[in-house]
Write a structure and sequence with these properties.
about 150 residues, mainly alpha, 5 helices, about 0% strand
């Protein structure tokens, strides 16, 4: 029987501990039932407002960039490929003509010297032939060229 009393005493203590736990749970339940939880969203509101401001600024920047792009697109003009090729061909032709003209102009002094030399040779040959054909003219020329005495 002693064992039975011991077991009953243990059970009584366990029941008292259980009752204490239940009482604490009831008090906690009552406290939690009366406790009002208020959601504090001020921090989240601040973050969302900051993000909203950032997004507005980004959208405004994009609108400005888009306005610049539209402005430059409206201001620009498209040129067909054939017109570009024609222009390049004309520029090449002009450059070739200018180069050839500059080359020819730079050779003018050389050509003039050659022509002068040829003309001189022809004139000398012509006068030589003339003097050989008429010896009287040759003598008169020699007298004129070297006067012997001035009187």
């Amino acid at each position: 029987m002693a064992k039975l009393d011991e077991i009953a005493e243990l059970l009584t203590e366990e029941i008292k501990g259980f009752e204490n736990s239940v009482n604490r749970m009831e008090k906690l339940k009552a406290f939690l039932m009366t406790y009002k939880v208020q959601a504090d969203t001020s921090h989240i509101d601040f973050i969302l407002k900051e993000y909203n401001d950032y997004q507005k600024k980004a959208v405004e920047d994009q609108h400005k960039l888009m306005a610049n792009v539209v402005y430059y697109i409206k201001k620009s003009m498209t040129i067909p490929k054939w017109a570009v090729k024609l222009f390049v061909g004309l520029v090449v032709c002009v450059i070739l003509v200018l180069g050839f003209s500059i080359y020819k102009v730079s050779r003018i002094s050389k050509i003039e010297q050659e022509a002068y030399g040829q003309g001189e040779e022809k004139a000398v040959a012509h006068f030589r032939a003339f003097f050989e054909a008429s010896p009287e003219a040759s003598e008169l020329y020699q007298e004129w060229r070297e006067p012997q005495s001035k009187k």
